[in-house]
Specification:
The protein has 250 residues and is α/β, with parallel strands linked by helices. It has 10 helices and 9 strands. The structure holds guanosine-5'-monophosphate (G) (2 copies), manganese (II) ion (MN) and sodium ion. This is Diguanylate cyclase (GGDEF) domain-containing protein.
Length: 250
């Protein structure tokens, strides 16, 4: 169909952009890094949101070249920022079963001369739905390279806790829907407490997503989250704006 051809062309002809959303250290509110989020500027449709083209990219296999572009662009950006600033990119299940992925990642970080631990790959629980043995193998090889692996959107998926002890995840990201619900719902607070305890037992860094208010921030910090992400500290922003933030601009 039309949109698929457009996307293939769009990837090649520079219609994709990455935005960067800040990640903040909960203890001192300093900037620790960014999550890269892709945008597609279609010549006639205008801005197409990722929820409209990532599923299409996954179905058609275009997620592979798209994902390679994202990794390249994110590493290029990270190389211009100080060593203590990390960059996270989102990975689809379909990318995680490619045995060549570790080599692709290694090539990107080597070419851009960034330390492996400055790159973080975010995956959701859905990676284990299909070829779970294959995905686990690729994740272990990525971990061996020294890149970070974050379990994204935790709690929203098909939560099977069995793979948490496979020692591949260094970080757990609590989905924003929990964070916002916690403002009104004691049961949700109890769920977050349990998630935090679970993650601590596995020595994982805990990030709260979707933090929009000062109340959200205090609540998630008090519950033991190490890192905070959300509109309170910044929406996804351009590379130029992110670089200003890195330089300490307000
Ligand atoms: O900001 P937001 O609307 O960008 O993101 C919507 C969804 O799109 C999120 O679930 C996010 O994980 C996903 N997404 C954003 N960028 C990428 C990307 O580069 N690759 C993949 N696979 N998913 C992405
Ligand atoms: O990769 P993931 O599915 O976690 O993507 C994060 C999504 O959440 C993106 O679409 C991003 O734009 C969005 N997001 C980030 N911070 C906030 C926030 O504070 N509130 C809301 N409603 N959405 C957020
Ligand atoms: Mn994410
Ligand atoms: Na999320």
């Amino acid at each position: 169909i039309r949109l698929e051809k457009d996307l293939a062309h769009g990837i090649q002809s520079g219609q994709l952009r990455l935005l960067y959303q800040p990640l903040i250290d909960a203890s001192n509110q300093s900037l620790t890094g960014f999550e890269a989020l892709v945008r597609w500027h279609h010549p006639t449709r205008g801005l197409v949101p990722p929820n409209d083209f990532i599923p299409l990219a996954e179905e058609t296999g275009l997620i592979v070249p798209l994902g390679e572009w994202v990794m390249e662009e994110a590493c290029r950006a990270a190389a211009t920022w100080p060593e203590h600033i990390s960059v996270a990119i989102n990975m689809s299940a379909r990318q995680l079963v490619l045995p060549s992925l570790p080599a692709t990642v290694n090539s990107a970080i080597s070419r851009h001369r960034i330390q492996p631990d400055r790159l973080e790959l975010e995956v959701t629980e859905s990676v284990f739905l299909e070829d779970s043995a294959g995905a686990l193998d690729v994740l272990k090889r990525l971990r061996a390279l020294g890149v970070g692996i974050a379990l994204d959107d935790f709690g929203t998926g098909y939560s099977s806790l069995g793979y948490l002890n496979k020692a591949v995840f260094h970080k757990l990201k609590i989905d924003g829907s929990f964070v916002r619900e916690a403002a009104e719902n004691k049961e949700t607070v109890a769920i977050i407490q349990s998630i935090v305890q679970l993650a601590r037992n596995f020595r994982m860094t805990i990030t709260a997503e979707g933090v929009e208010t000062a109340d959200d921030f205090m609540r998630m910090k008090d519950l033991g989250c190490h890192q905070i992400q959300g509109y309170l500290f910044g929406k996804p922003m351009s590379y130029d704006r992110a670089s200003e933030l890195v330089q300490g601009a307000p």
